[in-house]
Write a structure and sequence with these properties.
alpha+beta, Cytochrome p450, two-stranded antiparallel sheet, 11% strand
């Protein structure tokens, strides 16, 4: 990639910015999304693992049942409603992003005056716990994989309250790539291995302060699993 960019005459600063976005995505939100998604899948147990295997198997119709080879990403994205619903519910609960805006003029919101020259931080997490939007079918503080599958839930990702990737001009540009990467990783993992959770509870997340994406696991918490190849 670097050689191709240099061949196009792209300078060091621009190359560095491009590389940072890639490493940032790999080392922060993508791996954390995969961790939380697997955590919730394992908490539901073998039944849901089997359902995910069943709906993702057509992504590699020519491969053995214990592997996904030459995967069809379009199938994972368009024809796996259970996996997609679990992805949406995972990032609803684990997203802790915020936007920061510079106040170019005095602004009045309700009874508050926001003075020009200051910065305003807008956390999005409370939007995902709005019971009037996300709590119509199930409690907002709990993980429910069918929240995004019922009739009402199929429109939740179009709600103004849906902000797992931020919003406006700073919305995460890699959100679609991250989703496909995580869904592919989880699919391959569940087809190649049997996995059992040793830790019976979902580890606590670090909710100390807003971050640029998804929350990490709280220090001292973790998910322990047993992993062995499928026969």
């Amino acid at each position: 990639m670097e050689d191709e960019m240099r061949a196009l005459g792209i300078g060091d600063d621009d190359i560095a910015m491009m590389m940072v976005t890639i490493y940032w995505g790999i080392n922060t939100n993508t791996r954390q999304a995969a961790f939380w998604l697997l955590t919730y899948i394992l908490q539901y147990g073998p039944h849901y693992i089997d359902l995910i295997r069943e709906e993702t198997a057509p992504a590699s119709p020519s491969g053995p049942k214990t592997s996904i080879q030459d995967p069809n990403l379009a199938h994972l994205h368009d024809n796996c409603p259970l996996l997609n619903a679990m992805w949406n519910e995972t990032i609803r609960l684990s997203a802790y992003s915020a936007s920061v805006r510079f106040l170019s003029a005095d602004t009045v919101i309700g009874t508050k005056i926001l003075r020009k020259g200051n910065r305003l931080m807008i956390p999005y997490r409370p939007l995902h716990f709005d019971a009037s939007i996300f709590g119509v079918e199930y409690p907002v503080t709990e993980f429910h994989l069918k929240r995004f599958m019922v009739k009402h839930g199929q429109t939740l990702t179009y709600s103004d309250n849906w902000r797992p990737f931020g919003g406006g001009s700073t919305m995460c540009p890699g959100r679609h790539v991250a989703k496909r990467f995580v869904m592919l990783f989880v699919s391959i993992l569940l087809h190649r291995f049997d996995i059992e959770a040793v830790t019976k509870n979902v580890p606590a997340a670090d909710e100390g302060k807003p971050v640029l994406g998804l929350m990490s696991v709280k220090e001292g918490e973790d998910l322990l699993v047993k992993v062995w190849p499928r026969s």
